[in-house]
Amino acid sequence: MTLKSKIPEIRFEGFSGEWEERRMLDCSSKIGDGLHGTPIYTDNSGIYFINGNNLILGSICITNETKQVNKNDQSKDDKNLGLSTILMSINGTIGNLAWYKEEKVMLGKSVAYINLENCDNNYMYTYLQTSRVNNYFFNNLTGSTIKNLGLKTIRETEVLIPNKSDEQTKIGTYFQHLDSLITQHQQKHEKLLNIKKAMLEKMFPKEGADVPEIRFEGFDGEWEEKELGEVSDRYDNLRIPITATKRISGNTPYYGANGIQGYVKGYTHDGEFILVAEDGANDLKNYPVQYVNGKIWVNNHAHVLQSKKNVANNHFLKFTISKTNIEPFLVGGGRAKLNAEIMMKIVVTIPLNIEEQTKVGNFFKKLDDLIVLQQTQLKKLKNIKKASLEKMFV
Length: 394
Hints:
alpha+beta, Adenine-n6-DNA-methyltransferase TaqI, Chain A, domain 2, 3 domains, 9 helices, elongated
């Protein structure tokens, strides 16, 4: 593909000829932004004051924090938004897009609106996501601390567009379908994460309790508090730095500090063990905990644990550790550290019946597998979209 010829690398069958060069102003009836000031807020009007952060995954997202305004304070432009209107974040967060779907809103200054005409709506919505447009926007931002995308820049945006509306429609429909699939998988992924979060709260005892709220049928009795050292063994890893230029031979996976990476060989039964980050994690409240089945390289950034046979289940232990707030046990400053002796004294609450542990552990393992599957499918779709944006536009 060459810009000089204005022909995309990939094209739907039956279309030929160079694309036309226009400006965004030529493809819209009006381009503007929202209120430059602070409105008077009210309760229960049903009209929401939105900014660029409310534009998420192609839709206007109203949250409990979104404030409401009086109907009489809406501008003429707010009331003239329509189903051919694209909303775009232009202050601070740049380039988030959403379709206006007749929501009752008042726009703030960080939201621009583009009332489209003389083009296929879905085509133009997708065109605004191309690297060509994004690079143009970011090269023309103003402001030092908080970046701003000016309306003049948007209006003067160069648009390369097929001269036949049928070709525009085919391209727009293709990406609309792709966006729909991405949204579906994103929603499934978020739903699974919420299910996992809820079940972690209900299938493990709450603080001060000795039984969980939800339990598999056939199990009873109190769960008991045990120090980690009572239910698991800690094995040493390679206490030497392993760099990207000094990999251990073979195809054994290697992990970095935040991914709790390293190598263990010959210490563990059935090749199953748990890694707990020792230092270098970015989020202290959610210290990485990882179940492993096989060989991996482990440097000095991770502790290697394995449940004691006939005492604990590795899957269960992984989830009960990941649910535990490890932050109070950390020492050090910028690279907080979890010392081995302190870690092994951390108290976890477990059922003494290992069959119950196994059922709970397997339940969450299957849930994690579904989450990973959704992540993989979502990543694949996003990669397809990224490649298509590069090849199907000039």
